Backbone:
């Protein structure tokens, strides 16, 4: 069973100022509330802000983007209503650069490539299917990957997204025969012990919506032997 954040002591804040806050999401945490009723990361961040600044009443927090529940890494929130629409615009115009790391069992066909597929979501099983050509109801999905390290049993890929589709990285890598470690939904043969998948949102780069400064924030990898081998 996935665990969710329960208090501020579990929160790893990567960057914070008056307008934005970025945290390192753990596997199993949901970014926004859903039908499970589990406490979402957004509420934990609100509790953190309320406690840290001794704020009375409700705390404003805008969700800018999300990560899949089993995925780890950097999540950005807006602390002000001034910053949120600017951040939404920045993401909509693809001016935020998101870099992911993924561990896959199989060696990719090429050491680096630009993958173009058409993804169609099936809401019944919350899964996307990748097609080589456009089909009815599909959306174009584009990512770039490069092989950056060979481990004993896995391959470490770095991925940059050009589009943001449902389960895009998971689906596209599976399509080329490289399902992500632990991702049973997209073809990996066994789950990770903590119900995570080995996909980590590592770096987020964008221009600050108010200060207009370039920001580049990195989320530390999960603490386990395989991820630690990626950095040695």
Residues:
């Amino acid at each position: 069973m996935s665990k969710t954040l329960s208090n501020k002591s579990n929160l790893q804040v990567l960057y914070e100022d008056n307008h934005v806050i970025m945290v390192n999401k753990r596997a199993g945490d949901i970014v926004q509330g859903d039908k499970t009723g589990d406490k979402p990361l957004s509420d934990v961040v609100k509790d953190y802000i309320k406690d840290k600044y001794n704020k009375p009443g409700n705390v404003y927090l805008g969700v800018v983007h999300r990560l899949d529940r089993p995925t780890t890494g950097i999540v950005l929130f807006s602390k002000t209503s001034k910053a949120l629409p600017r951040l939404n615009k920045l993401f909509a115009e693809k001016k935020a650069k998101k870099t992911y790391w993924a561990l896959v069992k199989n060696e990719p066909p090429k050491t680096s490539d630009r993958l173009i597929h058409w993804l169609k979501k099936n809401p019944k099983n919350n899964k996307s299917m990748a097609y080589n050509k456009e089909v009815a109801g599909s959306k174009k999905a584009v990512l770039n990957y490069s092989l950056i390290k060979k481990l004993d049993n896995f391959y470490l890929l770095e991925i940059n997204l050009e589009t943001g589709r449902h389960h895009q990285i998971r689906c596209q890598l599976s399509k080329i025969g490289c399902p992500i470690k632990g991702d049973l939904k997209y073809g990996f043969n066994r789950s990770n012990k903590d119900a995570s998948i080995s996909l980590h949102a590592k770096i987020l780069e964008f221009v600050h919506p108010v200060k207009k400064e370039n920001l580049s924030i990195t989320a530390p990898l999960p603490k386990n032997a395989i991820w630690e081998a990626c950095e040695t």
